[in-house]
Amino acid sequence: MTYKIALNFEDGVTRFVDCKSSETVADAAYRQGINIPLDCRDGACGTCKCHTESGNYEMGDYIEDALTEEEASLGYTLTCQMYPKSDCVVSIPASSEVCKIKQTAISTKIREVRQLSDSTFSLIVEGDALDKLHFLPGQYANLQVPGTDQHRAYSFSSMPKDGAVSFLIRNVPNGLMSGFLKNTAAPGAELALAGPLGSFYLREIARPVLMLAGGTGLAPFLAMLDKVVAAGGSPFPLHLIYGVNTDADVVEIDRLEAAAKALPNFTYTVVVVDEASSYPCKGYVTAHMDPANLNDGDVDVYLCGPPPMVEAVAHYLREKNVQTASFHYEKFAAS
């Protein structure tokens, strides 16, 4: 059997390698041009110690000086002795540069640009290389603004399908990418993409999940839901609170409805700041974080939104003295 191993480096770069069940993760990475730090290859030095965030594996021989029993129980592994038994996600305590990974651009073409609202564009790009693009749901890519040497970072709003991926892009007044999408972009136009990047991604679902999205921060959650649907669902409840400023800013409800139909354990709430909104939930996201969704702290919280929203949620959890099992967030701001 051959498995996909996601290697997450400390600078946010992610690379996937194919690893046979009969070879170690370190050997598979080296075979594919990625030099995970290691010295002995015999499970004796501990140089290749990493943390496995998800997946099943078996360990070969090693000594306790290299990996203690307590470390092993917490998911730490020695990649020189790690034999995968499923797809895995492994955090590497080194930068991609140290491991000699170069950021490469993928050539794509625009399939479709739609302005979903005054505040949001939908961008779909396609290309042969996208069939081989692997990323964790929630991660982002750098898109080069055509005709410039400038890049902008956007979260994937879908998993790869039929050689295409999508993005939700905020319409920023006088923004470089916004101006291109509004005035110039057309199907067939070339667009360079580099990635995947980022440490914000869906981990293994081991308890209830609360997702908090602000504006175009909805994008990574759409990709996460795609992944959960493709995996056959979740044994634990997933709840999304999607916050926007006005009713006109609400987008992609059809995709949320489709996810709700496909996932019996998934529910969502739309929260609109504008008091004149037709939606029943008004105000800010923190006003609608039901204690049931926090599950007495036994919950994994994922948050993607502008800095004030991230800070408000963190303050709310501290004020309520809620210690969540995990809290993953991604801040974004207009360039």
UniProtKB/TrEMBL annotation:
Start and end residues of each 2Fe-2S ferredoxin-type domain: 3-96
Keywords assigned: 2Fe-2S, Dioxygenase, Iron, Iron-sulfur, Metal-binding, Oxidoreductase
The organism's place on the tree of life at top rank: Bacteria
InterPro entries, per database record: 2Fe-2S_ferredoxin-like_sf, 2Fe-2S_ferredoxin-type, 2Fe2S_fd_BS, BenC-like_FAD_NAD-bd, Beta-grasp_dom_sf, Cbr1-like_FAD-bd_dom, FAD-bd_FR_type, Flavoprot_Pyr_Nucl_cyt_Rdtase
Gene Ontology terms, MF aspect: 2 iron, 2 sulfur cluster binding; dioxygenase activity
All copies of domain FAD-binding FR-type, residue ranges: 103-203
Pfam families: FAD_binding_6, Fer2, NAD_binding_1
Cofactor: FAD; [2Fe-2S] cluster
NCBIfam families assigned: BenC
Protein name per UniProt: Ring-hydroxylating dioxygenase ferredoxin reductase family protein
Organism of derivation: Thauera phenolivorans
Lineage, uppermost ranks: Bacteria, Pseudomonadati, Pseudomonadota, Betaproteobacteria, Rhodocyclales
